[in-house]
Write a structure and sequence with these properties.
2 helices, mainly alpha
């Protein structure tokens, strides 16, 4: 029963994270973008 609930949450969390990063990028500008790119590079 828990698995079906976790799956939507797993999709919702990244979506919210992307929205938050987009807003943060707009408000804080270049530094946030650079830091975010470094995070993505580290993950890959």
């Amino acid at each position: 029963v828990g698995a079906p609930i976790l799956r939507p949450s797993a999709l919702v969390v990244p979506a919210t994270k992307w929205e938050f990063l987009a807003v943060t990028h707009r408000s804080q500008s270049f530094r946030t973008q650079s830091a975010f790119k470094q995070v993505l590079s580290s993950r890959e």
